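Morning!

This is the sequence you dropped in the shared folder:
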Amino acid sequence: MKSTKVRPWGAVISMIAAAVFAAPTLVLPADSPVGPKLVFIVVGSVLLATAIVATRAEPGSRGGQPQDAEDDVTP
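The structure's back. C-alpha cells below.
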C-alpha cells in the first residue's frame, strides 16, 4: 500500500520566506548598507510568490464540493 499523504509545501515555503525576510533585522547591523538588505527582500519575495502558487496548487485549495444551482433548503 502506498501512502498518499499530502505535504503542505506552501506553508513550508512561506515559513522559509518569513525567515528570509527577518534575517536582515536579526543578522545585519542597523547601519549596514542597503544592498545586502535588498537581496534578502528580493529572495523573500520570490519565495513568498512561490509559496502562494504552491498553496493554490494543493489539492483541496479550491474549497469544498461544488455548489449546485439549487439550494438544499426546503420550505
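Headline: The mean pLDDT is 84.

More detail when I'm at my desk.
O.
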